[in-house]
Automatic annotation (TrEMBL), chains A, B:
InterPro entries: Ser/Thr_Dehydratase, Thr_synthase-like, TrpB-like_PALP, TrpB-like_PALP_sf
Keyword Lyase: yes
Any one GO molecular function term: L-serine ammonia-lyase activity
Positions of the Tryptophan synthase beta chain-like PALP domain: 85-394
Cofactor requirement: pyridoxal 5'-phosphate
Protein family membership: Belongs to the threonine synthase family.
Gene3D superfamilies per UniProt: 3.40.50.1100
Residue positions, PTM N6-(pyridoxal phosphate)lysine: K123
Primary enzyme class: lyase
EC number: 4.2.3.1
Protein name: Threonine synthase
Source superkingdom: Bacteria
CDD domains recorded: Thr-synth_1
Organism of origin: Paractinoplanes abujensis
Amino acid sequence: MTSTVNAPAAISASPAKGLVCRACGAEYPLIAQHACYECFGPLEVAYDADLLARVTREQIEAGPQNIWRYAGLLPAGQDPATRVTLDPGLTPLVSAPALAAAVGLRAPLWVKDDSANPTHSFKDRVVSVALTAARGLGFTRFACASTGNLANSVAAHAARAGAPSIVFIPYDLEQGKVVTTAVYGGDLVAIEGSYDDVNRLCGELVETDEFEDTAFVNVNVRPFYAEGSKTLGYEVAEQLGWRIPAQVVIPMASGELLTKVDKAFAELVEIGLCEAPEDGWTVFGAQSAGCNPIATALQSGTDEITPVKPTGIAKSLNIGDPAAGAYAIEAVRRTGGWMDYADDDEIRAGIRLLAETTGVFAETAGGTTVAVLKKLVESGKLDPEKETVVYNTGEGLKTLDAISELVGPTHRIKPSLKGAREAGLLG
Amino acid sequence: MTSTVNAPAAISASPAKGLVCRACGAEYPLIAQHACYECFGPLEVAYDADLLARVTREQIEAGPQNIWRYAGLLPAGQDPATRVTLDPGLTPLVSAPALAAAVGLRAPLWVKDDSANPTHSFKDRVVSVALTAARGLGFTRFACASTGNLANSVAAHAARAGAPSIVFIPYDLEQGKVVTTAVYGGDLVAIEGSYDDVNRLCGELVETDEFEDTAFVNVNVRPFYAEGSKTLGYEVAEQLGWRIPAQVVIPMASGELLTKVDKAFAELVEIGLCEAPEDGWTVFGAQSAGCNPIATALQSGTDEITPVKPTGIAKSLNIGDPAAGAYAIEAVRRTGGWMDYADDDEIRAGIRLLAETTGVFAETAGGTTVAVLKKLVESGKLDPEKETVVYNTGEGLKTLDAISELVGPTHRIKPSLKGAREAGLLG
């Protein structure tokens, strides 16, 4: 089914005025629907420009220390009582001078560390917005197709809200992401296939009568879900003192996060909360070599994405048929950026480099982004003289296997001064 | 060595006026020393009451969103430029009505979720204060004896500060805690012994010339380190609207965290930032059955701690010879509380109960505390009609092994509607 429940008060009170097709511009009310009836293009939330323009820095700064300080710019959750949320967001923006030096940047470099969210990935942002909208639309069960982080987040959100959840994952996920979903007690369905198979099945299930009460955060309420990523743009700008950075490097799975950070910056300028940097901002995208359909398309000069069968350790980025790929390419081209990809060894090195220089322990997606940052500087695509923000979207504890063979104790000794001396610890 | 470097400006400017022996009251300047020269009793930071009394709610509320908002009540870090820190703290205080109902509480219950810290345990608080004091005292290398969480935190702090670190751990720690220390690139020494063996060796190393430049956060700068835990008391009171909760349940390893939360509440009353609850506050302590020397002593009516050889899954609580045990007993007796302990199965059940009812995924220490909360209600030791805060001090991702056999996918299916139907997902 595609719910056509009318938007209730909470959503009506939001600045969102409807859904609009990104491809053909067809307009829809605020319903649980993600693809255009006309052209099958993806739907996106459209806002009332006058309502957005009423939001002030002062309002935001007086708000809670989480994503809901930006409620005036989001499609749902204006009334705190309506929120289905773990209160994610306002994660640290970490100054990274040692990382800058290591990769050859001569301007300030920042790491936006979204591993600090409640379930330790940026997915808490999108899930909070999606489930809040979903509850407003009358759904009572929460679901998702996931590469892992989303599963953790949906299951945890449902547990806190006291609602049932059903989460679909590929059967070969990292154990850290399986246990961390299962522990919350909802249904957890392992699918014998890839993420793209999981996603396809969820697209079929959502049409069945048995799932009429079920919001799949990244299927039928996907337009609301996607808007949650805008907060990763707002926060960086606010944390820089209401300044948009000249360059951002963002990991890509579906490509949606990248497009929404770009959208957030555009909104901030449009409503007068920030000025654009002198030369505008430039957006860079990072993929893994095992799943690089967006970067490959951009580098080939096309915006036709050829789906791939993902491989490699960056499983949270392994979406072989990325829904927002063409829009990510558009944003990168428009802003003068570039995309690149890193292989598994480079990703592992990226994780270690980030940890050693900043104290931030990232999952493979973060390692990918740092590795690509390094490549972009080396290739001259990224300007080493301009302020740059690199996004870490997840937590190293969830992908320990990726580096557990590479790092460990530097010494093993008996519990005595003699043992310490023999190991060379006493000169 | 025991450094006698004079306290530099940063520490002089703090409200701390010296160290005092908890046993005999002997006084010392602010030096790197943790045991009394007179009686070998533990040293504690003493404050200038007039300086503490100058701190206002408004000052604190205008401060940063981390522990440093309480700098006026801490022994170091008043000048931001002097801090060696990941900026931990101001972690969520989560309302837990479903958990309250599950354990039989009829008053508000809150979970103070310290897994939200940068390295996902409360240790970031104590390490930030210890290393900031250590740098002020002239130390250039950072070290610790650790059951895991402290190792993560010291290594990460050192990486961010660009300083060398050397971390000592028992050889049999959970992999999650080993990799998460090693990834930051410092020295990591695995000791063939228990935590108590590790701690003993560090006490010997700190006296050698080769370690003269080295601050062991929980040995020679332990008095500063311990003060960091006070922030877990301040924050709960501030987050409750400057109100001290009637009851708190706190996990115990050395017992120090419990004594410092109690100390924090006392300070808040003394300096006029909070009123005491009508009947005062009551402090409860939680240990595991595999390492329960403090709880056993209390229950036996003595304050003589008999050291034990720790066993069981709650490794971060496995301190068999707890340095602050007698002081924890004193605080619990004085406030009319109690201590209890949970076995491994109860700890696992505690982790699951917390996750299912709140969306918070705790490590074994958190499972222990929730399990003990349940026991305390059942035994009538904790008043089910009074507001209660339970402390979760660490992250479930670090102790996945504890529950990975117990939870997992509820279904495994082929990627088709037929597969979903056969698994009963379509009615």
